Amino acid sequence: MTNTSQTLDLAAVDAYLRDNLPGYEGPLEATKFAVGQSNPTFLLTTPARKYVLRRKPPGVLLKSAHAVDREFRVQKALEGSKVPVARMHLLCEDDSVLGSAFYVMDFLDGRNFADPTMQGEDNATRTSVIDEMNRVLAELHMVDIDAVGLSDYGPPGNYFERQVGRWSKQYRASETETIPAMDELMRRLADAIPPEDGQRTLVHGDYRIDNMMFARGSTDCLAVLDWELSTIGHPYADLAAVIMQWQMPPGNEGRGLAGLDRAALGLPSDEEFIARYCERRGLPGIDNFGFYLSFCFFRMAGIIQGVLKRGLDGNASNPERARKLGEFVPQFAAHGLAALDRG
């Protein structure tokens, strides 16, 4: 049986675009992007222009996962804001067209950095890119959610309480073996959730450098990508996600900064990045940052456990990489416990 997460019915896509996308003209070619574990993503090429199509994967999916409709909505709402996003064209929720929901957006001819070391770039570029990443993050958390029509994009209540509960359930639904550190982390996180502080903002949910597109020839951000986990929640989850990534080992797998001389590379320390973010948002500082960092390690462990389960079930976008990612679940759980201990 063909794994339809790897292919597209070109005739069906072509017919749909001819009927629904003004200015579209074939013939059409499609190429699957190698990156992206969750929602399969394809480059659509016509003689006149290029588009990108993102679709839900086939098969049995966890409840609320792979929400391409939410991705489409949030990016559409952010058009024209200080948070750069790709232009959205079409959302198709009719499964009879391709077998699962999908949306079509502009293709952006920019550059993407696989990890924060930005191999091959000079120090000035690294410094500027990370500062732009910081700026966009602060702007994201200052979006007026009422003005852009996203006040109902996430439920009310304590964001971290909701998220710990959600990802604990999703982890259990995807569990393939007992990992004691993950069991302990879920229990301790539930007991350590801080009280509400009044901050309720748009959050990306997976904010990191490889989910951003930058202009060629400059360090301006063209778009923030991959909004599947976005919601209305607490901004420190996004900030801590950046710091979490940096604590991973460098290289293709960890894509972090652990053990590197950041100053020699033109990269900020965790404390410098957090301080600059707080300055941009007018915040005095952040207490108990260890909880937020621990939460991010926990959530990432839950995400990659889901990727592993889909890989074992034959539904992952890249099954081999899914299995490799799954090996990191115990490490993320251990990092989460360590962050809680540091406070």
From TrEMBL:
<dbReference type="Pfam" id="PF01636">
    <property type="entry name" value="APH"/>
</dbReference>
<dbReference type="InterPro" id="IPR002575">
    <property type="entry name" value="Aminoglycoside_PTrfase"/>
</dbReference>
<protein>
    <submittedName>
        <fullName>Phosphotransferase family protein</fullName>
    </submittedName>
</protein>
<dbReference type="InterPro" id="IPR011009">
    <property type="entry name" value="Kinase-like_dom_sf"/>
</dbReference>
<dbReference type="GO" id="GO:0016740">
    <property type="term" value="F:transferase activity"/>
</dbReference>
<keyword id="KW-0808">Transferase</keyword>
<feature type="domain" description="Aminoglycoside phosphotransferase">
    <location>
        <begin position="30"/>
        <end position="253"/>
    </location>
</feature>
<dbReference type="InterPro" id="IPR041726">
    <property type="entry name" value="ACAD10_11_N"/>
</dbReference>
<dbReference type="InterPro" id="IPR052898">
    <property type="entry name" value="ACAD10-like"/>
</dbReference>
